[in-house]
Inverse folding.
DNA sequence: CGAATAATTGACTGAGATCAACCCCCGTGG
DNA sequence: CCACGGGGGTTGATCTCAGTCAATTATTCG
């Protein structure tokens, strides 16, 4: 028996922000990139971006496609995954507003990863060359980009470490805790992970299979560590979940 | 029978560059960070760094230590590894001249990783705050730092992907090819990997054990793909190694 | 209500970890 | 020079975690 029928996920908390022109400026101002800049500077930068909206599930870019544009995620969440030759997908990251992806140095000619919208997404697109120009003329933006990239690098290192050293159970616990930190919101079920999260997704990000993810999650649920249903997971006992990680 | 007795590694090609004061300027000028700057600017920057030399095997920073300084690797090579609670080490990266590590944003208070010199190393140390100041005032340096970090992020993603999707044999082949690209030099044995590389090292970076690394390497050797001995590996047949990777 | 998709559960299998014995270098000191 | 010792490397036997295959049950949606 699962914890509750229907999804407890805010199903249309579709953040009402779309890509409407009048909101772009506000959004840009709020981005860590341009936090310290003058209004006129942001306006000038604003003109250099195109905006594009995406529905949940839509693909922003497809791995292998020509890397025409660099995207800055203005609103919403997106998943970055890399396809395996065997047809599987490995989930590498979840992007939140302010983060960017795409060809940073002009040499990269195809996207290595597929990026898909998890919620309603507003993305700002720009050519690699123009983005570099902005970075070169606005040191704060460059430093902000560096900070974000450095923190993503740390997250990736953490993932490498865990994949190398931990068994499946611990990796899934770790993934849940990371997701909870990044995307968690309080709910009656516990710390609810704020994106649709299937067993398959969880398997993709921990290097396991749906079956293993399901078994581990069932075990966790029986022990009262999590509550889970079709497409969602909530963390019911953070402390014991962390504790479980220590044992490796 | 191994391919050859004694190590074919250039055992004292200890790049004669030390941290001597008169060479620091030259080194700084050569770093991608400061490539486009005026001589006077580099001189000013130079004064803000301390230099520190390390012998092969010496530890630059230890995981868990207070993250006092940020280091820029001026000369030599160093390995970045993260210890497991179980006492193992996962090799995350090999740093080459120009790359940096340490607390980039002032919040990071302890080093997450251990960094050890692989060769004679000259490192330039600076406080996080001062480094940020340099980045803020020299956009090109910030963009260079971003480029390096972005490329390390890509490498880390690649590693995550491989750990999740490939079996041990393929991961080892991939690791060898990556090392060959980054550290390879031509030799009579083939493309010789220019750092001491034990089976254990290889295991650490591919999430396997010494025994598995040894078995796989033996198999590769029997097939003429590599030549290996105590502490070194050379790639004898790049094409077939790459081909082997395709089959997954 | 069905049809489609997600999740669960069980039985079987296999890649690779673990445990253990042994060999080879290579440095050291008598 | 040789005896010794230790660390890296190899090889084999066994065991186990998790992947695979397969059947069944939930849940959502048209």
């Amino acid at each position: 028996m699962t914890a509750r029928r229907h999804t407890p996920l805010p199903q249309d908390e579709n953040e009402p922000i779309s890509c409407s022109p009048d909101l772009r400026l506000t959004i840009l101002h709020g981005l860590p990139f341009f936090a310290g800049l003058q209004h006129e500077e942001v306006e000038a930068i604003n003109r250099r971006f195109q905006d594009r909206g995406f529905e949940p599930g839509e693909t922003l870019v497809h791995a292998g496609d020509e890397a025409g544009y660099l995207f800055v995620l203005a609103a919403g969440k997106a998943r970055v995954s890399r396809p395996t030759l065997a047809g599987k997908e490995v989930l590498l990251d979840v992007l939140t507003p302010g983060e960017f992806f795409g060809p940073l140095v002009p040499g990269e000619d195809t996207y290595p990863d597929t990026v898909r919208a998890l919620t309603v997404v507003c993305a700002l697109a720009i050519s690699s060359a123009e983005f570099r120009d902005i970075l070169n003329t606005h040191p704060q933006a460059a430093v902000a980009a560096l900070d974000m990239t450095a923190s993503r690098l740390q997250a990736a290192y953490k993932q490498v470490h865990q994949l190398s050293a931990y068994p499946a159970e611990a990796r899934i616990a770790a993934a849940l805790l990371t997701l909870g930190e990044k995307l968690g919101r309080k709910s009656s079920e516990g710390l609810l992970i704020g994106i649709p999260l299937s067993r398959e997704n969880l398997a993709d990000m921990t290097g396991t299979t749906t079956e293993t993810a399901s078994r581990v999650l069932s075990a966790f649920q029986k022990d009262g560590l999590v509550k889970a249903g079709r497409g969602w997971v909530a963390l019911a006992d953070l402390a014991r979940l962390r504790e479980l990680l220590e044992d490796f």
About this structure: The first strand of chain B starts at residue 50 and ends at 54. Residues 2, 5-6, 167-168, 208-209, 211-212, 215, 230 of chain B lie near DNA strand C (CB under 10 Å from a C1').
